[in-house]
Amino acid sequence: MEKASRAARLVSRPCGYSCVMSNQRIRDTWLIGKHEAKVLAALYIAFTAVWFVVGWALTSPFKDSWIVRSDQSVAEWFADGRTDGLNSLSYVGSMLSDTLVKIVVTAIIAVAMLMVWRRWLEPLVVVVSLVLEALCFITITTLVGRPRPDVPRLEESPVNSSFPSGHVAAAVAYSAIVVVVFWHTRRRWIRALAVILGVFVPVCVGLARMYRGMHFLSDVVFGALLGGASVLATAVVLRRAAERQQRQVRSDESEQVTNLAHAST
Q1: Crossing angle of helices 66-80/217-264, nearest 10°?
Q2: Angle at Cα 155 formed by Cα 153 and Cα 157, nearest 5°?
Q3: Distance CA 198, CA 244 (A)
Q4: Euclidean distance between the first and final Cα of the chain, in Å?
Q5: How far, rounded to the nearest angstrom, does the alpha carbon of residue 33 sit from its chain's CA centroid?
Q6: Which distant-in-sequence residues (6+ apart) come within 8 Å of 102 by Cβ?
Q7: Distance in angstroms (rounded) separating the CA atoms of residues 208 and 35
């Protein structure tokens, strides 16, 4: 009877996707199954198709449009305003989402989240957002092949294509951390700090990449949109997977209660 009572209390407790089920093993909280993999693959195809069309439009039918002319004017304005001090600051801003930096930062944050919450939801949201963004970016920039701004550049890149900005997309993908923060706290100052950092980093990276002659303004804008779309899509897919998993766990626990109740009579 005591076991049945304890199990009944466990089933009756409120618990949403942001609640950690203390009796679950970490390996049992893995969220990416066949369904989630198919959805994420479909999102990759959809995002790649949409951003490819935009990039193609900027390099073909609209290559002489006011948008492209404005892009070049902005690039020249940044180049004309360069100073030694700003050159150094722009290097720091650009490095905030450099390939090695974003991999190391993401790995550290993901491991920390896994250790704190002992489940895969939070680290997967951060990691998958970045992976989805990166896969889309690599495919899009290869297919579009937009030349970089016609200004002196302060650095070289193995990817000699401008659209979209992968640095900015990755910087916005960091906002997956903001999503996790909002899931776990209602404290306004913590949420405000997370949002401020989530906006500050992409803005710094975007300005730095344009200043250094690596991207047009439109590259930065659509890079930011790609990063944001990746975070939003990943959070929705994995949150729904977590909710389904929670319902299954509670269903299993309910069945255990019923079995224990029958056994005690």
Answers
A1: 100
A2: 110
A3: 29
A4: 9
A5: 19
A6: 130, 170, 174
A7: 39
Q: What is the pTM of this model?
A: 0.86
Say how far apart CA 183 and CA 163 lie, in whole Å. Answer: 33
Q: One digit per residue, pLDDT tens: the chain, 265 residues? A: 444 444 444 334 444 455 554 566 888 888 899 999 999 999 999 999 999 999 999 999 998 899 999 999 999 999 999 999 999 999 999 999 998 999 999 999 999 999 999 999 999 999 999 999 999 999 999 999 999 999 999 998 888 899 999 999 999 999 999 999 999 999 999 999 999 999 999 999 999 999 999 999 999 999 999 999 999 999 999 999 988 888 876 765 565 556 555 566 6
DSSP per-residue letters across 144-162: H-PPPPSS--SS--S----
Separation between Cα atoms, residue 195 and residue 182, nearest integer Å: 10
User: Token pair 């047009």 is at which residue?
Assistant: 216
Residue type, 154: L
Going by C-beta distance under 8 Å and a sequence separation of 6 or more, which residues neighbour residue 101? 95
Q: For residue 21, report the phi and psi dihedrals to the nearest 5 degrees.
A: -85, 105
